Amino acid sequence: MNFRRPSKIQERALPLLLHNPPANLIGQSQSGTGKTAAFTLNMLHRIDRTDLSPQALVLAPSRELARQIEGVVKQMGRFIDELRVATAIPDPSKRGVKTEGQIVVGTPGTVMDQIRRRQLDARKIKILVLDEADNMLDQQGMGDQCKRVKNLLPKELQVVLFSATFPTEVIHYANIFAPKSNLLTLKQEELNVEGIKQFYFDCNGDEDKYRILLQFYGLMTIASSIIFVKRRDTAAEIQRRMEADGHQVAQLSGALEGPERDVIIDKFRSGAAKVLITTNVLARGIDVQSVTMVINYDIPESKGGRADPETYLHRIGRTGRFGRVGVAISFVHDRSSWQQLQDIQAHFGIVLVTLPTDDWDVVEEKVKRVIKSSRAGKSTKEMMD
Ligand SMILES: Nc1ncnc2c1ncn2[C@@H]1O[C@H](COP(=O)(O)OP(=O)(O)OP(=O)(O)O)[C@@H](O)[C@H]1O
């Protein structure tokens, strides 16, 4: 896989994960630092190859992330003879078909259903991993489902929780879910990924946002980029306008379900579509190395309209993976979005740089400067220090 050295989180987490007797782990490290490989190596190391029953279970918040993790497990395990890896995600064509894999990666609702219907045999599962664990434990629906899944598993269980963010209110639940864990955590100020250059556009209202977005894309040729919006209808509207403007875009939101989503994300992964317009469903975990830019068309907010710094961090973390550089641009257009951006800056102790909306030469120069340094193959120093 061309991994020359372990990243800091891999170097720290692996000895803790592999130690016997198995201990639980709560592991935090910045986006794109290789958490997947850390928990994957532990699973590959611990499964009994002579036993074909499911022995390790990974839960992830979206079907796209579950499929991506399945791919990593298969790739890292490709020299293990006849290793069986399976997904447990919504798929009407697999109704009633047994999920057979020594390692199973799924979304919590489907996994719960399958265990209950005995479509997934959970009796020999000895490792449970929650990827994006704070999200999995926090959200009312998924938190409940994860707890139920855990209750359906054997008591002797190594529980592994990974995420880039663990807000203080979630750490409490995490400690209950994974008792007596080894802890690898970071301070809030340590979460910023240096390679991601963060900018913002100050727009005059909603319609001006579209105009600036279209002008920006008319100007820049970006390898691949993701545009995050709050609502599904905004996603559809931006898709319509950008396509009318001649751009090849893909759009994915929770409005679509099941395997039809796979076609869309695969089109983006392969580069057939260069722009992906999406909602928070894809804010976390998705690893597409060609993504050099993330746009927060709407600033991420939590239910009461307050800024959601964690989601901001996960969204912009879709670029600048593993020491690469990337650009993140947020759009503010009124008092409340302005305030949200201020709150995010204060939360992480960062300062975003403004991009002018009336001087496109300056915009081009600033953005291209970052992206060019990416082509020069920036060092992975940050990863290793
Ligand atoms: N030791 C390594 N050397 C080089 N590349 C690596 C190494 N470990 C992981 N990678 C690559 O780094 C990228 C990011 O890894 P991964 O998706 O696991 O990040 P993550 O920490 O889970 O991020 P996020 O918090 O955004 O989910 C992947 O493309 C992966 O293949």
Q: Mind explaining what this structure looks like?
A:
The protein is an alpha/beta fold and 385 residues long. The chain has two domains: 8-186, 3-Layer(aba) Sandwich (Rossmann fold), CATH 3.40.50.300; 193-375, 3-Layer(aba) Sandwich (Rossmann fold). Helices cover 40% and strands 17% of the residues. The chain contains 14 helices and 14 strands. The protein has helices spanning 8-18, 35-46, 63-76, 108-116, 133-138, 140-151, 168-177, 206-219, 232-244, 260-270, 309-316, 335-348, 360-375, 381-384, and strands at residues 25-28, 56-59, 85-88, 103-106, 127-131, 158-163, 182-184, 196-202, 224-228, 249-252, 275-278, 291-296, 326-332, 353-355. The strands form two sheets. A seven-stranded parallel β-sheet has the order 3-4-2-5-6-1-7, sandwiched between helices. A seven-stranded parallel β-sheet has the order 10-11-9-12-13-8-14, with helices on both faces. Strand 12, helix 11 and strand 13 form a beta-alpha-beta unit. Helix 1 packs parallel to helix 2 (35-46). The longest helix is centred in the C-terminal third of the chain and has 16 residues, at 360-375. 45% of the residues are buried. Adenosine-5'-triphosphate is lined by residues 3, 6-7, 10, 31-37, 164, 285, 287, 289, 317, 321-322.
Describe, in short, the structure shown.
Residues 16-184 form the Helicase ATP-binding domain. The chain is built from 14 helices and 14 strands. With 385 residues, it is α/β, with parallel strands linked by helices.
